[in-house]
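Build the 3D complex.
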Amino acid sequence: MSPEDQILWAVALPLIGAVGIVLAAKQPNLREAVTLVTASLLFVDVWTLAPSVLAGARPAVDAFEVIPGASLNFVVEPLGMTFACVASLLWIVNSVYSIGYMRGNKEHKQTRFYVCFAIALASTMGVAFAGNLITLFIFYEALTLCTYPLVTHKGTEDAMQSGRTYLGILISTSIGLQLLAIIWTWNATGNMAFVAGGFLAGNIEGPEVGLLLFLYMFGIGKAALMPIHRWLPAAMVAPTPVSALLHAVAVVKAGVFSVVKVIVYVFGVDYLAGEPSGQWLLYVAGFTIIVASVIALRQDNLKRRLAYSTVSQLSYVVLAAAILSPLSVIGAALHIAAHAFGKITLFFAAGSIYTAAHKDRISQLDGIGRRMPWTMGAFAVGAVSMIGLPPTAGFLSKWYMLLGALETQQMVAVGVIVASTLLNAAYFLPIVYQAFFKTEATDGNPGTEHGEAPWPIVVALCSTATLTVLLFLFPGPALELARQLAGG
Amino acid sequence: MSVAAHLPALQVALPLIAAPLCSLLRRPGVAWGFATLVSWVVLVIAALLLAQVLSEGTLIYEMGGWAAPWGIIYEVDTINAFMLLIVAAIGAIVTPYARHTVTAEVPAEQHNLFYAAWLLCLTGLLGIAITGDAFNVFVFLEISSLSSYVLIAASNDRRALTAAYQYLVLGTIGATFYLIGVGLIYMMTGTLNISDMAERLPDVANTRPIRAAAGFITVGIALKFALFPLHLWLPNAYTYAPSAVSAFLAATATKVSIYVLLRFEFVVFGVDIGIANFHFSEFLMPLCVLAFLAGSTVAIFQNDVKRLLAYSSVAQIGYMVLGVSFYSLDGMTAGIVHLFNHAMIKSALFMVMGCIMLRVGSVQIKDLHGIGRHMPWTMFAFVLGGLSLIGVPLTVGFISKWYLILGALEEGGYGFAIAAAVLISSLLSVIYIWRVVEVAYFKPSPHGAAEITEAPLGMLIPTWLLIGANIYFGVQTDLTVGVARQAAALLLGIDL
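Done.
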């Protein structure tokens, strides 16, 4: 199979899988088997593409014309390759976890759940391999629409209210700002394809650059820059596997991925660095990092704390891109992978606790580490990665961001990174401490006996925790892809 | 002469002759079958005409062999061939669909008359599009209007009578204004032939009668296509008309009137003449912006989904005329392509409402709780049609919006504000579409809803054909954008 075919298969496979899931709706075991087989095939398809991209190839394929002059076009470049590899790998792990979670909690409408999930992965692949702005936009919108039924899965008034927030913010920013930015770009340059080094230079100058950057950055609502971050905590009403894969990996990473793509391939790092009107982004990202961390500190609901932590971590990527130095761009690319592995582990742990102990507040977690050692052990690994300490992947990405900030003398960025590291420690370490070193408050209620969650859940969260460490120990290929991105 | 040479005449004559014949067919099923057959033949003729125009250029057909300017000529160029195709295609899809809803909503003994009026309406709309004679336009305008008053009033719902009456009063004023305008031009130029008028008008351009004529014609036609604030007849007419009539008229009647506006503003009055510094865009553009902002906002607060869609139409008409009022190739392309795209979107959505009306007996939002479970195909069609209306990529709505915003941005300065207004209006449409979707999918169905079943195939297939077209032409834009671009170039006098 040629690399071009592989690209198309990466988008087509999950869609075919979705059809298979509908057909197997009556037999849950077969239906789950379809999900797992599809996820495995996608993994093989995407990962076999990686060696040639590492070697410098940039396979591309045109599907059809969307509007005269612009095609649905796929190009595999280093950043997209990283994103696709991470998402396809984690889909397998997450599917195993979903099976344990959805059955353990006896959730309704499981077929709709798996179908939407598969379509979401197809959209993610489309975002990762998009070769121009219009293709990126199409799959970005598809990702919003197919995750909406997952957010409202429970069907309660609360879930519907959150669904409205979710759809409202994501659609209004993308149609209202992002689409306008894309059409403006097209109108000004006659180009929409991503070009290494950007293509705006000479077409748009002065304050308009800042305005266009504004339209892009706030148009990509999935990157959750404040004040348009509210959809992310709202989305936490979804079942945990959705929060784990989609709202810690696929959807939010699609957001920051688009941000990095736009900065590197549309504006161009050097061009943007020379435009004073584009400098505001650094401050907005820094503001989001700090404020979201402070909000996270005050949350008692575990998933909400994780959600605000995600808001803050996403802005690390934006900040790293906004520092506008090659080293920090490497940091941004690495953080997309590092945060994915760490945060999915944390969400898996939250879901595991909910399934086994039916607890969702941090104040209830005293001593739970003794009942659920695997879960809380994995949680600790994820937390360490969020703070950015070795031996976890979070250390690597933060290291490069700091190097980049120091290189360009962006002392504000250095300060933000240091301060937020302390804040991260302040809201994650107490949970770990509580879980292992405090004694459980039994209230004399004997009905609270529980052990670990079902084995698929434990297997899933242990493997993502392992991946977090492995990425630190063997960063070679990921680092090489990031270097290629930064090197132009 | 072969049949092919007479296609322009047949396009109108066939449904015109078929209409009285249809009124003689007393059995409801037979009348419907006959109307369907005619609508399909009409579509074939329209397709052949477009193909002929695209390959050979403008066709001139002299009625009865009388040469212009003494006789009436039919002049088919890219733009009206495109209009003919829109009207005929919607007719060919909605007529077969009509059977079940008409059985449910129109008294059985009137079916033959209903279908006769239906064919007359089709005749009128096709005639307006095809003729090259200004007075003849008025005649066909009256044929289509009178028959549509009948069609609207045919509903069992008694409120349809007032709606039809309101439409009749305002429609007549519009037609009269148009006639006054044509009379003034005739007085000054001595011709009723549209091409002739265009030739002679520059000599007398700067006179008061011509300026008055331009005003009368523009306002009269704007009344016909319901440009804000002349839209008052439209919401009631679309809400209370039988479902099939809403689906047909929403997609065709206003579009054809916009075509007449295009013909007069660009061909007769001409882009270059700029009669006494008069550019109709200067006062139409703000009205368009108001139309889509107000239309979308009012749509949000409607509880009757047909009325909601009607207000959405008011907004969409704003988009079409806005595109035209830019006087630029991209803007004009946006306006013309949206004539076609919106016809498909709105017709499909009204057809979905017809399906729901048939099964539920109401299209109030409060009666649609949980309907997604009972009528999965119908509601999914609504979701896709709604996405197209919003303008999500890979649907026709996106193509229209793309060109409209591109056209706005080309205007520079104030164009940005207009582009922003268009996008705000799109967001408002997300709200009103989602109100319906949310209730249909995520609210529990009330008691007694168990008997509600999926709509019959005879309605689902035409509905899904149009939904399919929404997706197909959202991806394959060669035909729609290509033809619209040619038409726009023709109207603006640009060589592509």
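The longest helix of chain A spans residues 157-189.
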